[in-house]
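Handout, section B. The chain below has 432 residues.
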Amino acid sequence: MACCSDTYYRIMHTFKHVENKISIMTFVSARIGYRYSKTKISSSFIALINFFSVLGLCLGVAALIIVLSVMNGLEDQLKQRILGVVPHIVITQPMLKPIINQLKPELQDSILTTMPFIERQALVQSAQDLSGVSLQGVVPETMQQYSSLNDHFVFNDLTVLVPKQYNVVIGYALARKLNVQVGDNMRLILPSSSRFTPLGRVPTQRNVKVAGIFNLQSVEDSQTIFMHIDDVHRLARIKYNVSQPQTSDSTRWFISEPFAYAQLSAELNALSITHSTWRERQGPLFDAVKMEKNMMSLMLLLVIAVAAFNIISALVMVVIEKTPDIAILRTQGLTAWQIMQIFMFNGLFNGVKGAGAGVILGVILVYSLNPLLLLLDVPLALSGDGQPVPVLLQWHNVVWIMVVSLLLCVLATLPPAIKALRLQPAQSLKYE
């Protein structure tokens, strides 16, 4: 037993000795690589090339952060202005039984509330023009609480929608097209609802009053008008009892995260519930924004890749310049792998400098983008009313940009490091 213990002790001692030696040699390699990366620009042409490769990496990282922040801001604006108003999910059949109770508990928690809902295609006519719109019958109190429509009113708000008064709220773009303002009357025509007259079947028509104007700065401004649900049911000649919401021909669901509609939709399909989602209306718009975001990211990643691989040329020249040093280090006991580590650390330090400076520059420019555009008088606003460029910095994007940049830099160090690994000390010192 004593012999075994002694053997074990010697093995562990040897292992720790080897481990400490490896750690020390790795530190030595990192230290030498760091010194090579600190060469002054004025003292070496190689250092100048190295500086520009680091600068290119910095600018590429900063540009990618700025572009992603602007695209994220645009997507967030669309989400607030469009998905905050359009129906997330509409059950297009009478709710004869409690559908929500049949869903999974986690899906039930994602539903904020439900609201009786009716939607009809209609025509609105003023003295100036005629336009086709989507007429939505809503419960004003619910819309105020669970939609963002009230945050974008130019005149009045949803409280003006009072039953039996036939008030409507319309978008700013539609108001300009029809040349109407708050207090003006319009003719509302419902082609899907008609009545018999001595002249034959005539679509339902009624004079309505413009009681409010909203400005979402989206397509909804020219395509959608809102009216109290009781009034729309009367115009559509549908029996509806306000005390029994299930008597409405459809139900609107407000969910906490509109982008998470897919799970709810799949569950409703499994239950054979007829429904529609916001994706059917606005999906192409968000797909276009996402595709543009991905393409811009890809192009700027290629810029970062080019900047990172410019490090190859700088490191190759460093290897050539430091050939005698490499030979001396090999004769002093450094292994080929440790020589290789020197140049890998050199490239990694350059990557850290370039990517780190790019992250700092990008974050500063993101937070000061609109003041800079205002100072430089650059017309990049979304509209002529002074709206700023939407920016939304997401730190997980910054992290993956940093990680990808460093990974590309490490990959770029491999060819020069392999070249340094293959150098023979005798051949390197032959002509010294």
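Note. The longest helix spans residues 279-321. Compare this with the example in section A.
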